[in-house]
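Comment thread on ticket #2218

A.B. wrote:
> Attaching the input chain for the structure job we discussed in standup.
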Amino acid sequence: MNRSNSCRGVSALLGAAVLALVLPARAGTNNFVVPSFRGSAGSSVAGWERFTVATDNGVGNSPDIVGSNAAAKLVQRDPNAFVTSTGNIYNMAGKSVFEVSYSNPGPVGRVVFQSRSFGTELDYGSVKLTYGSVSIDAVRTELGRLLVGEPGTPGSGAFVSSKWEWDLSGSGATTFKLGFNAVSDSLSFDSATLDIATVPEPTTVVLVGVGLAGLWFLGSRRR
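C.D. wrote:
> Ran it. Output below, let me know if you need it in another format.
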């Protein structure tokens, strides 16, 4: 192998390492957790840190955090919102309404959604996952609350991080939508992550079982 090929190989390995580490590292700054299945076969993840579209334009916000590989979009419906200089979706004059859509060729298993907001909080009871005609809510877990400034003074508030989980194993769903909204005006939506674990196809499970049985048989013959 010549020097240039060797350098390209090292660069590829470093690139793979960055993809594996950026999302967990970034998640730590937001108090987000790394689901146990992230990085496993069939799993995918999407992360949003800086938004570019404040209101629904038919396209929405694609994941922007390096390492995102899920086919997901995030849109906000209320026309009064705008994008701040820090990349947040802020709505001073209306109540923000969000939707995250996801699609995948394989059936969905576990789903973990995490969000971080500032100022006015989300209406946590509004968070629902919908596939087909089925709509499911989930229990919220608060991951962190960082107070900024003196209460009641301009610019003061709290960064609040939250997590919700669903298990769609056995549903056969390959697409779903997450819907949620603010309690009132003045919510600043800061960041979010979406983790999805897909369910192995039955043929895959059978093949794995056959392979394990074959290995056991060969091992027993050697003994």
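A.B. wrote:
> Thanks. Noting for the ticket: The longest strand covers residues 108-119.
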